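In practice, a research group might receive sequence data for several interacting partners and want a quick structural hypothesis before committing to experiments. The following worked case mirrors that situation: the sequences arrive first, and a predicted assembly follows.
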Amino acid sequence: MTSLRREAENDSGLAADDLRETWRLLSPEDRLEAFLDLPRPEAEDFFLGLPARDQLELLFAIPADQRRSWMRLLPPDDAADVVQQTVEDEREALLALLDEPTRREVMALMAYAEDEAGGLMNPRYARVRADVSVDEAISYLRRQAREHLENVYYVYVNDAEQRLVGVVSLRELFAAGADRTVRDIMSTELVTARGDMDQEELGRLFAAHDLQAIPVVDDQGHMQGIVTVDDIVDVIQEEATEDIQKIGGTEALDAPYLAISLPKMVQKRVIWLAALFLSEMLTTTAMARFEAEISRAVVLAIFIPLIISSGGNSGSQASTLVIRAMALGEVKLADWWRVIRRELFSGLMMGGVLGVIGFSRVILWHVIFHSYGSHYLVVAITIGLSVIGVVTWGTLSGSMLPFLLRRVGLDPASASAPFVATLVDVTGIVIYFSIASITLRGTLL
Amino acid sequence: MTSLRREAENDSGLAADDLRETWRLLSPEDRLEAFLDLPRPEAEDFFLGLPARDQLELLFAIPADQRRSWMRLLPPDDAADVVQQTVEDEREALLALLDEPTRREVMALMAYAEDEAGGLMNPRYARVRADVSVDEAISYLRRQAREHLENVYYVYVNDAEQRLVGVVSLRELFAAGADRTVRDIMSTELVTARGDMDQEELGRLFAAHDLQAIPVVDDQGHMQGIVTVDDIVDVIQEEATEDIQKIGGTEALDAPYLAISLPKMVQKRVIWLAALFLSEMLTTTAMARFEAEISRAVVLAIFIPLIISSGGNSGSQASTLVIRAMALGEVKLADWWRVIRRELFSGLMMGGVLGVIGFSRVILWHVIFHSYGSHYLVVAITIGLSVIGVVTWGTLSGSMLPFLLRRVGLDPASASAPFVATLVDVTGIVIYFSIASITLRGTLL
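A structural hypothesis for the assembly, expressed as tokens:
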């Protein structure tokens, strides 16, 4: 398994791991009981590793006289998340559990949304002045650590007005000669974030620069706190989960699959399914317009699922690729023209390949089974041309839909595979019958 | 934008950022030129932030006499990644650029696959013995930092045989009284990984424990190195991208959307589209079996896209939710029975809702447009029942397919939305016509 213990191997250690494994499946009562059974140090580690939602649940469940010590265990950014999980009325009660300076920090953090850099930020970071010596800086850091420091990956160098002027990694500080000054060794090439930066963008910033922590500064360059990369790991997982669920055609569940209640899950799914179902009814309307053609040439009906699904599949592919490229920052709104050219070409190529396969299928079946009567050749041509048209159209519209959604301020990930497939189904039918009405005129129609 | 510079704001700083933005769009020649134009310190930061593939490209492009210093800039785990990007013949040449101890470290790391914990591991970590005092430990760390230390988030405590016995965060070390021993303050509750742990599992371990680094140990508990969380951010992004692309029905691109060559992209996409197209041909075969029914009741054909797409959509939803829950470790193989019960119930509920909508649609159109003749009621019942059956079947098969794929050792994410939709289309047609042949017997059929 993942966790090896050399010394101090004991039952309770395994109990904490077991609890972590089964946590999501336990009832609130069982969670509380198992949690209170853990020895304090392990319970603390376990508590700090929980999502804010579960921390809140535990805080309200544990005996009132223990609540203060658990609340104070949380670093300010996590405490702010917990407070933001609850309704307005109960926030005061939670904030009252904190000491005065921390309460002020937490309230300042709550001004930011939970999914912004400011909401992920920790105001307790290691800081020194530029003109102290390396030895003095290390002593000073040891003093800060004794008080309230959470993280020491980088030491931030602020001027007298708390404006960020440089950064030095602890490794560099350690490695430097004792009597050089911090200014000598600090780096002034700073990667910083603003408090209102979206967490998705922040995730990309971490990924691009491979940093352990990024400082948050205001407009005037005053340092406000740091966001550490461990908080970003959760964020990146969450954002990817949301996108994947939307691409699959559900509302984001916002909870683990097995933990969400069945009625709630059905509700989140059926809304989208019903919307798609109502849109898909347009296919019935479209088909009804061609009822006369179908009754004259039933062979046309037989190929409908094949043709419209080829458009749906190519559309799902294109939209998924563009959605992910947008989420990673690889493709921006302004790239729409580059994308449309790539997709037009790809669509024609892929449509060509599938069209040839479709054409050959009709010819082959005719040769083997004599399936399509004397007009097999025009049928084959109709199928081949329709597939080329539908695939090209599916690819183009699938790739442009995320741009359209983002342009009007919606989440591009809402261009889900089922949504694109539905859109393309309707137009696919129109394309198919329009081509058929030309190619089959005078023969079958 | 994201990067504020207080002091030392200069053109070259902006140049590095610009280069990062446009890198993926540049030709190899333009990349090299822009890179060589950067001042050395910035070029170093930039180089270290590149993916291994691009680092390799640069290493081969830059003048031979500069190659050694760039290669030696890389920490051992990154150097191993770069060496593994190239073909066997060229590896020796790259390894020869390293100093002897580093070369040995890199070769040891290369024994692991790039996507295992051992491949992400850095063998240079901060270490002390348990029985030294805090003051001695800090001095010793400063000596290590001067030599070869990369990271100091945690200080690992090894015994004489280099077996890991404890860990102390730098913050704790700093905060402790100078004359306490490391043993007094170290934690023996260790979260560790094995060298062959898959990177996806490693990502979950980081997310669950909120750690900055996780030590890698062998079977006997000997410490081999550490994996730091900044390497995991990239891993998590990559894994999510792969899953999203597979869910969308493409092979994973393994390159940014705008950077991959058009023929290569078309190739990765058309293979899946063609496979789906060939499978979807089964719908034509299925439909052909019902040709007689269709020619007697053309109204049946009109609802085909609506009915089969409702199965495809519910199937895509279910498979996507299960794929993501599996990737996050929320759902394991052994949970299949829990999932099947949830999905059976969800499928029936959602099918019921859509069935009622479908039924009402037929009745409504009959009342308003007199669309479906005197047998409108049996048509409405046929549509309603078929939708219930197809949605339930779609939901069940969509949720079970990822289990099946994982069971036989394939990636559950290959149960893409288009794949599930195709599978459900064929069975949907059979379900629809089977129900119709019962309900419409004696009236339309």
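Before designing any experiment, note the following. Chain B has 21 helices and six strands. Chain B touches chain A through 147 residues (CB under 8 Å).
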